[in-house]
Design brief:
Elements lengths: L1 H9 L21 H22 L3 H22 E2 L4 E2 L4 H9 L5 H17 L8 H13 L3 H9 L6 H6 L23 H9 L2 E3 L8 E4 L9 E8 L2 E10 L2 E8 L4 E7 L7 E2 L2 E2 L6 E3 L6 E6 L2 E8 L1
Parallel strand pairs: 4-8
Antiparallel strand pairs: 1-2, 3-4, 5-6, 6-7, 7-13, 8-12, 9-10, 9-13, 11-12
Length: 310
């Protein structure tokens, strides 16, 4: 709260223009006011949530109001819905507007589409620094552009993580060029993206301590298999999938005292199998409302083997 109060003294009209910004960008620098104001909103929303959990309604209301005012100021200064752009259209500006809640659903879809198009047009490369490297893949995946996000993260040409590896890197570097520190956590969020998207393991903020989790694996066209696991105080949550000649096999393990909502990519949710029979009739599997191209189930502790036919 003290940190937030300090930031308020540095903001002008709820726009915060201090800090390093999108550090070590490739070519295009995003205005510091974009990245810092986005962080300012995140802090205000977090403070409001904590105040609510601590049963401090007056503080919660104050921070909710602050967050609303920051959002309005950002939109007025940077968002141009008519042109589907934010600031001057930098990757980082577009991604932050999508992921930090500055846009309504329709705007997010259009601006996310613009982000996907310009990244694809560069041969699936980012033009950003460390902040864009975190939020662009997340924005793309959230808006249905997972294939572009994956090709971006899997690229082996400059600038990319794969290019670092081709240069002999065994650690994360501080910059795309490799001219600074060569042992930095900078650009490390791709690791979290792998867990949350390829393995699909996502904590549920409404049920802390892994009482409930979401498991929603993403299956890129250019990848044949993936697996990941998270060790929690309840046990290990694991998710693995592999393509076969006639579909995709998913193995999901949920520890004791944990429940999960599983979302699988399926053209026909009724055709999904678990074990030796239809998933909709499997023991411990509760079908949920299916959406277009997705089969949704609720499961409890145990090991499950789902099969989604092509």
């Amino acid at each position: 709260v003290k940190h937030l109060a300090y930031l308020a003294t540095r903001a002008e009209g709820h726009i915060l223009d201090i800090g390093l910004g999108d550090w070590v960008p490739f070519k295009t620098r995003t205005p510091v006011a974009v990245t810092s104001t986005a962080a300012y909103l995140t802090f205000a929303e977090l403070a409001a949530r904590v105040a609510g959990l601590l049963d401090e309604p007056a503080d919660a209301a104050r921070f909710v109001t602050l967050a609303r005012e920051i959002r309005a100021a950002f939109r007025k200064r940077f968002v141009d819905p008519a042109k589907n752009t934010v600031a001057d259209g930098q990757d980082t500006a577009l991604a932050l507007a999508v992921t930090n809640g500055f846009l309504d659903a329709g705007e997010a879809e259009r601006i996310g589409g613009a982000l996907a198009a310009q990244i694809a047009a560069r041969g699936h490369h980012l033009d950003s620094g460390v902040i864009g490297a975190k939020y662009a893949p997340r924005a793309l995946a959230a808006l249905g552009h997972g294939e572009i996000a994956y090709r971006l993260l899997a690229s082996s040409t400059y600038p990319s993580w794969g290019h670092w590896i081709s240069q002999g890197a065994t650690t994360l570097w501080e910059s795309w060029q490799g001219e600074d520190s060569r042992n930095h956590i900078f650009f490390g969020d791709l690791s979290a993206w792998f867990f949350e998207n390829l393995a699909g393991i996502r904590p549920d903020d409404e049920h802390p301590g892994f009482a409930h989790v979401h498991v929603a694996p993403f299956v890129p066209a250019e990848l044949d298999r993936a697996s990941g696991s998270v060790r929690t105080h309840r046990g290990t949550i694991a998710s693995a999938w592999q393509k076969t000649t006639d579909g995709v096999r998913f193995e999901i393990e949920i520890p004791a005292n944990t429940k999960a909502t599983v979302e699988l990519p399926a053209r026909d949710p009724a055709a999904v199998r678990e074990g030796d029979g239809p998933a909709v009739a499997a023991n411990g599997v509760e079908p949920q409302s299916a959406s277009a191209g997705r089969a949704v189930f609720r499961i409890g502790a145990g090991r499950y083997v789902f099969f989604v036919p092509r």
